[in-house]
Amino acid sequence: MAIISTAGLARTFQTKRGPVDAVRGIDLTVREGEILGFLGPNGAGKTTTLRMLTTLLAPTGGAATVAGHDLATEPDGVRRACGYVAQSGGVDPQITVREELVTQGRLYRLTRTRAAERAEELADDLGLTELLDRKCAALSGGQRRRLDIAMALTHRPAVLFLDEPTTGLDPGSRADLWRLVRRLRDGHGTTVFLTTHYLDEADALADRLVVVDGGVVVAEGTPSALKLRYGGSTDASLQDTFLAITGRSASPADAAPVAV
Amino acid sequence: MLLHDTALIYGRYLRQSLRSRFALLFGVLMPLLYLLFFGPLLTDLPLGGQASSWQVLVPGLLLQLGLFGASFAGFTIILEKGQGVLERMRVTPVSRLALLLGRVLRDATVFVFQAVLLVLAALVMGLRAPLAGVLIGFAFVALLTVSLAALSYALAMKIDTPHGFGPVVNALTMPSMLLSGLMLPMTLGPAWLDVLSHLMPFRYLVDAVRDAYAGAYATAHMLYGTLVAVAFALLAVTVGTRVFRTAGA
């Protein structure tokens, strides 16, 4: 069953140099409980799409439903069903981890007691218990990212959007985060919609990939189906497959290194 | 829900203000310097009317405090946009209006606190004014702060960098201060300046607070001051609400 479906979802920004079509028309469906990897070169429209699906940005064209709620007419329903972790995260460095978690619970309309309990549960679940009374500024990159995700899970969302969740993390923290994402899906049936530039991450984590370029979907399928179709064989690297799809480089056959 | 959310946002930002006590006191510094080093120059000057020079100057300094402080309130939103805090809140079901009102009410609280400090210092310097008048003055500071902070946040939502925001606010606040006669009554100046200053909404506020400090409550100045302050606050909060509802869109 589709938990997200979009039809011609588009966003044009008006700038001083004229209109810019950041997203030209995205058609995609995400099945419930799926981990979807949303790939594309810089400027392809990934973040803009995510910001539209999470109600942060109104589309200028097309339509979408998220968890049964229409994006345009029921933004509150979409907000209650979604968690979102932006690239930059979203915590105040001067505030303690506990205060941020409790405030987040209160923003989702939990009572004061329930919000305090939920903060403890989330901290326990994401290995933040020891850090609850530290300021967010004192956390390491990996800890910060776990806190960002804990904040997004406050209301047990059906869909979790992660925008480049492992950028800047060390290999150990990345592996932790992959385990966490799998655990969320396997344990709670959470649908995870994530963007990444790390193709090994997409390969290891995603059930299905959607590749966007120039604001439209240019390919979609399981990692191995895409490798077979665009890379020539299921043994092709996702890197070569990606480059072949987006046309950012010559096809793998004549990928001779250029003299430097 | 609006009340719940507004109280939540108000609490969050009031705690933020209390964490930086230095900034809380620093805000009073500029009007305090005027009080100490400019106020004594006026004591023997003929400023018109029966009121003492302190009853004329202190209302102006109170509104100056609100004008300069609240106009820069938007800086914090620019920082929070960079940290991602604003978007993180905007993906929750929290009321959009509460995101504005909670902040604006925090600002009003902070500025009334600073206004109390300023008036206490003025009492030491020689101000004598009726208590009711002083309280009316605080009400005007609160309303002015609500208005200007709402506009400042609305502007900050549209601007991405602090160095884009600062010059715009400076360019608006300086002429506002000079043309509204915050330092000296505009009636002292030539007719053209007096007429020009009536185009400034703050002119009506400062005239009203000066009347209040002189113990005159049922005057035309008070009526116009109240009308302008309330109308300006409604307009500013409406603009702010509209921007907060559609921000990013």
Overview of the structural elements:
The complex is a heterodimer of chains A (260) and B (249). Chain A is an alpha/beta fold and 260 residues long. Chain A folds into two domains: 142 residues, Rossmann fold, CATH 3.40.50; 75 residues. Helix content of chain A is 37%, strand content 26%. Chain A has nine helices and ten strands. Chain A has a six-stranded mixed β-sheet with strand order 6-7-8-3-9-10, with helices on both faces. In chain A, helix 3 crosses helix 4 and helix 8 packs across helix 9. By secondary structure, chain B is mostly helical. Chain B has one domain. Helix content of chain B is 76%, strand content 0%. Chain B contains twelve helices and no strands. The longest helix of chain B is centred in the middle third of the chain and has 30 residues. At the A-B interface, helix 2, strand 6 and helix 3 of A face helix 1, helix 5 and helix 6 of B. Chain A: It is a peripheral membrane protein. Chain A: Pfam families: ABC_tran (PF00005). Chain A: This is ABC transporter ATP-binding protein.
Question: How do the strands and helices of this protein lay out in sequence?
Answer:
The complex is a heterodimer of chains A (260) and B (249).
Chain A: E1 2-15, E2 18-31, E3 35-39, H1 46-53, E4 61-66, E5 69-70, H2 75-81, E6 82-85, H3 97-107, H4 112-125, H5 141-152, E7 159-163, H6 171-188, E8 191-195, H7 199-205, E9 208-213, E10 216-221, H8 223-231, H9 238-246
Parallel strand pairs in A: 3-8, 3-9, 6-7, 7-8
Antiparallel strand pairs in A: 1-2, 1-4, 4-5, 9-10
Helix pairs in contact in A: 3-4, 8-9
Chain B: H1 2-19, H2 21-26, H3 29-37, H4 53-71, H5 75-83, H6 85-90, H7 96-125, H8 131-158, H9 162-179, H10 191-197, H11 201-213, H12 220-246
Helix pairs in contact in B: 1-7, 3-4, 3-7, 4-7, 4-8, 4-9, 4-11, 5-8, 7-8, 7-12, 8-11, 8-12, 11-12
